[in-house]
TrEMBL record, chain A:
PANTHER family, alphabetized: DIPEPTIDE TRANSPORT SYSTEM PERMEASE PROTEIN DPPB-RELATED
Pfam families linked to this entry: BPD_transp_1, BPD_transp_1_N
Sorted UniProt keywords: Cell membrane, Membrane, Transmembrane, Transmembrane helix, Transport
Record SUPFAM superfamilies: MetI-like (SSF161098)
Membrane protein topology class: Multi-pass membrane protein
InterPro entries from the UniProt entry: BPD_transp_1_N (IPR045621), MetI-like (IPR000515), MetI-like_sf (IPR035906)
Main location: membrane
Full protein name: ABC transporter permease
UniProt-listed PROSITE patterns: ABC_TM1 (PS50928)
TrEMBL record, chain B:
Species of provenance: Nocardioides mangrovi
Superkingdom, taxonomy of origin: Bacteria
Alphabetical keyword list: Signal, Transport
Short name of one Pfam family: SBP_bac_5
Cited InterPro entries: Peptide/Ni-bd (IPR030678), SBP_5 (IPR039424), SBP_5_dom (IPR000914)
Protein name: ABC transporter substrate-binding protein
SUPFAM superfamilies for this protein: Periplasmic binding protein-like II (SSF53850)
Source species taxonomy: Bacteria, Bacillati, Actinomycetota, Actinomycetes, Propionibacteriales
First and last residue of the signal peptide: 1-23
């Protein structure tokens, strides 16, 4: 098991190395020029030329790549040309915001998935209606769910806020995860407010993955509960709950977990859109701005980071799969 | 593993939502620090991120709402009127010698910087030097300064390296040099190492000081108690960053926001005007959406074809249909109010049959690519409408969007660049040189395709020495004749506020849109 985990995480390094090369090549050959965004539209031709030279953008490609890699190895992520702040400072501000949203989204997805899995499996006409509705919900893109959420919960009902992470300004806690910081500092009102801001974006990003998870889990449960080993367990006197827990869920969990790993990648993509809609000051919002302004340092760093997230989550999913299903270890 | 804990979690989430609903804590308009109507705090939206509000690097626009509230220059343009008129800010009197090389200023007495340092002539040279040392976009404004003499604490004599009739206009520019406390300049010298102190702190003399800045999230201005002039109408101005215009609209309608300055395209603006609870304004400016034609275009590079093409476009109709209530059609070459209109008229007249002739002739089988920066709603609208017009006339055309970071490099591709682009530019200040040199000469910076009319370049170079209006007029005529550029409209600076925000009509800038003299705003009684 340990060997499996080490091997899986070891591949992470290789993936990140390939990703860094790809990101560098794309950012340099993408045809962008960040200098205008940096200096302002009205900058003179001479000012633009001087800044290009200062930033090393006229250097030969191998020189630029070496500079990029050596800076990266020294932990220097460079200056963000779209915000004029070090990329490291931007990450320090924005990473916790995205983490908070991603964790909440993951949690919501699992909750939605498990709850709906039971409803999904209902027989008869009602079950058919539920399945049809869920299919519709799953096909709705995150921005549509977000827009619907805003119209219902902000415009019509006035229950939830629509912009930002809190009404009180950034937290004084250490983590930058506002809900947690409020709890850690004993400021429950702050946590409550942050939670209210979190609900709509997290729900918008989690509905699609949650429903997809529900479908896979429902199918898996239905198959495993009706399987020969489940029948054998019943005939040996095990209760229905025990059959569900020990045989049904355990076998149905493998495809569901795999699905969750894949969905996490899609979830990261939807966070980019959701952060934009809800003015959530995270990596997604930063990435949109950085791409528009050809801020190569920022784009490269965020791409690496999101890539690493994805690989790590999937590695963890694989490890979890191996833990619950010995066949994965053997394969 | 059991389903029960997860089902309980789901119930908890549902309960949470219900509690949220019951609490009413986040009801629109009821955020903890949201200003209520008539309060002394104003809440103004920034749409998306802004550049750092350093007075010597700020060169975008929206961040000037911070910079120009905390810093002041020697001169400015009188706000609230379209006709640009110089007014003294930290200078009370000024004069220039005959050949525009020596400028003398009498400085205002009784002014203090926000760090308590008195404002004297010593600050002028130090502030100019910082702008030069920082060396970014606006540094050219002081590049011609040869010497700053300080005969006394309240007098400054600036000598230029060469005659420049636009120098006073540059000092009055919204992007012009600001006076910075010499004490702060000593404590925080220019550095290449990462974040600069001036990115989030100020050391100016303006009516507001920088408050809490949370980059990309919110910015705050606090009234400066010892301000030398009239006290600002709001004691605090908050600028939450909202990423999406739809959200801004919702928050304006719900009262979460008090004002949005600029940003609105014609559809959004028209939507705001329908809301009787909001006050909407559209002020004149020098921002001028302009069509640029690529001189290396395979389709339009030929003089006769290009001129026929430009004559075939009904620009008044294009401006009206594309920009609606956020712009006015123009027949002038330079932006409005830069030159007397009688010497500044387009010479190419509209020919309603020109496009049909081109469709069957020189442009038959060719495709016209129209590029625009994605961040420009006016550029998009103009490009889309022109493409539709051309396709309707039988000329194959497509409208193509470019991100801010790829736009300029796409236009620099010579024959492979788009054939046309629409760009909504503004002069840095209310002087014809700030437009003519920048837009109509290849060295200027915004001559987007690098087109050149050598005689016009020569005339513009001569005109700036002694502010020769006749030469500017001749240059305008040559520019128009060339059909490389066409000024389509005059953009109107839009402002939308809650009805209880007063002073907007006195606070707009005659040069650029999206910026107000915020100290002139006040709660309406």
């Amino acid at each position: 098991m340990l060997r499996f985990a080490v091997r899986r995480l070891g591949s992470l390094v290789l993936v990140l190395l390939c990703l860094s090369i790809l990101v560098f090549v794309l950012s340099r050959y993408g045809g962008g020029d960040p200098v205008r965004s940096y200096l302002g539209n009205n900058a003179s031709a001479s000012a633009v030329a001087a800044m290009r030279e200062k930033l090393g953008l006229d250097d030969p490609m191998p020189v630029q790549f070496w500079d990029y890699v050596s800076r990266l190895l020294h932990g220097d992520l460079g200056m963000s040309l779209s915000t004029r702040r070090p990329v490291r400072a931007e990450l320090a501000d924005r990473l916790p915001a995205t983490l908070e949203l991603a964790i909440a989204t993951l949690l919501f997805s699992v909750v939605i998935g498990v709850v709906l899995a039971r409803v999904y499996a209902l027989p008869g006409c009602f079950g058919g209606i539920v399945r049809f509705t869920l299919l519709g919900a799953a096909s709705a893109p995150a921005f549509l769910v977000a827009t619907a959420g805003v119209l219902i919960f902000f415009v019509q009902l006035g229950w939830l806020p629509v912009s930002g992470r809190t009404s009180y300004g950034p937290s004084e806690g250490l983590s930058g995860i506002y809900v947690l910081d409020g709890l850690l500092t004993g400021n429950l009102a702050y946590s409550w407010d942050a939670l209210q801001h979190l609900l709509l974006p997290a729900f918008a990003a989690s509905l699609g993955p949650g429903v997809a998870l529900a479908r896979v889990l429902a199918d898996g449960l239905s198959t495993s509960i009706g399987s020969a080993y489940a029948r054998t367990a019943r005939s040996l006197g095990e209760s229905e709950r025990s059959v569900l827990r020990r045989h049904g869920l355990r076998n149905a969990a493998s495809p569901a977990l795999s699905m969750l790993g894949v969905q996490f990648g899609m979830m990261l993509s939807s966070l980019v859109v959701v952060e934009q809609i809800f003015s959530w000051n995270g990596l997604g919002q930063y990435l949109v701005m950085a791409i528009d302004r050809a801020d190569t340092n920022a784009v490269a760093t965020i791409s690496l980071l999101l890539g690493a997230f994805y690989v790590v989550i999937n590695a963890l999913v694989d490890i979890a799969l191996a833990a619950i299903d010995p066949r994965v270890r053997l394969s | 593993m059991s389903l029960r804990p997860l089902a309980l979690s789901a119930s908890a989430v549902a309960l949470l939502t219900a509690l949220t609903a019951c609490s009413g804590g986040a009801t629109p308009g009821a955020d903890a620090d949201t200003p209520s109507s008539g309060s002394a705090t104003l809440k103004v939206a920034f749409l998306g991120g802004i550049s750092t509000p350093d007075p010597d690097t700020a060169y975008d626009g929206p961040e000037l709402n911070l910079v120009n509230s905390a810093y002041e220059g020697l001169l400015a343009y009188k706000p609230g009127q379209a006709d640009p008129e110089l007014e003294g800010v930290l200078a009370t009197d000024w004069s220039a010698n005959d050949d525009n090389t020596v400028f003398t200023f009498t400085l205002r007495d009784g002014v203090t910087f926000h760090d308590g340092t008195p404002f004297t002539s010593a600050a002028v040279a130090a502030s100019f030097q910082r702008r030069t040392d920082v060396g970014e976009g606006p540094s050219y404004m002081v590049a011609g300064v040869k010497k700053v003499a300080t005969p006394s604490d309240d007098e400054v004599v600036i000598t230029l390296k060469y005659p420049n009739s636009s120098f006073l206009a540059l000092l009055a520019s919204p992007f012009g040099p600001k006076m910075i406390s010499p004490t702060a300049l000593k404590e925080h010298p220019v550095s290449d190492q990462g974040t600069d102190w001036f990115d989030s702190h100020d050391a100016g003399t303006g009516p507001y000081t920088y408050g809490d800045f949370h980059e990309g999230v919110s910015y705050e201005l606090d009234a400066y108690d010892d301000y030398w002039g009239t006290k600002p109408g709001y004691s605090e101005i908050d600028f939450p960053v909202v990423a999406d215009m739809s959200t801004v609209q919702l928050q304006m309608k719900s009262g979460d926001l008090d004002a949005v300055i600029g940003y609105a395209d014609d559809t959004t603006y028209d939507d705001f005007t329908q809301d009787s609870d909001l006050a909407t304004y559209a002020f004149s400016s020098m921002q001028t959406p302009t069509m640029f034609v690529n001189p290396q275009s395979a389709a339009l590079g030929d003089d006769a074809t290009r001129k026929a093409f430009v004559s075939g476009i009904d620009f008044a109709d294009l401006a009206t249909s594309s920009l609606g209530s956020t712009a006015e059609p123009t027949t002038e070459v330079f932006p409005k109010n830069l030159l007397p209109s009688d010497v500044d008229q387009q010479v190419i007249q509209y020919d309603s049959g020109a496009l049909a002739s081109l469709a069957d002739g020189a442009l038959s089988g060719k495709t016209i690519t129209i590029g625009y920066p994605a961040s420009s709603p006016s550029g998009k609208s103009l490009s889309d409408h022109l493409a539709a017009t051309l396709n309707g006339a039988g000329i194959d055309a497509k409208s193509v969007s470019f991100g801010s970071g790829t736009y300029y490099s796409a236009l620099a591709k010579g024959a492979d660049a788009p054939d046309i682009t629409f760009f909504s530019g503004f002069p840095d200040t209310a002087h014809p040189d700030s437009w003519g040199y920048v837009f109509y000469t290849p060295d200027g910076g915004l001559d987007l395709f690098g087109a050149e009319v050598p005689e016009a370049t020569k005339l513009l170079g001569e005109a700036v020495e002694d502010d020769d209006i006749a030469k500017y007029g001749q240059a305008a005529e040559l520019v128009s004749e060339s059909a490389y550029w066409y000024s389509v409209a005059t953009s109107l600076g839009t402002v939308v506020t809650q009805k209880d925000v007063g002073g907007v009509e006195d606070s707009w800038n005659p040069v650029i849109t999206g910026v107000l003299d915020l100290d002139l705003l006040h709660p309406e009684s």
